[in-house]
Amino acid sequence: MKKISIALVSLVLFTVSCEKSTQVSDTTQSTETTTPKGQEAVVDEESAPDVVKLASSNPDLSTLVKAVQAAGLATSLSNAGPFTVFAPTNQAFDKLPAGTVEDLLKEENNSKLGDILSHHTYVGVIKTDQFSDGQKLGMVDGKSLTITMVDGKPTVNGKINILASVPASNGIVHVVDGVILPE
Prior knowledge:
GO cellular component, one term: extracellular space
Number of strands: 7
Region (Disordered): 23-46
Organism: Planobacterium oryzisoli
InterPro entries: Adhesion/Biosynth-related (IPR050904), FAS1_dom_sf (IPR036378), FAS1_domain (IPR000782)
Shape: globular
Oligomer: single chain
Protein name: Fasciclin domain-containing protein
């Protein structure tokens, strides 16, 4: 009788153990099947933000952030870099002809939008005190822009002003008052 009781208790414990194991296994499986996110989805409250997170935290750059996301460049710009990004303000985008931004944000124009945004990105870090008159920067799109000193301050192509420069964990963001269109 003692052997039967021990056998029954063992069977019950084994069954309960298997049920719990199945529940844990099901839970583990459901978290493994979630859609993977890119580098921009990494949560890090301690380190300096990367260029995408920095731009995302500034409401004056919301149009740029939408454009970066629409062009599928958020993951690239969240990687190690280093990058120098010339970030046009919302007001800079507003200076473009009416309907331009809305048209560029359409899915069928992702390539064109990507080309324009790539013209705002330089691989490497250049701080404002490192700019010099006539300096040419080879941008990610393969074209160059020129830094021109006006009243001792660097401008892009002689007409776009740098309003602020903010270091990021993977580069630097120069907030600018114009959209830099490739020539």
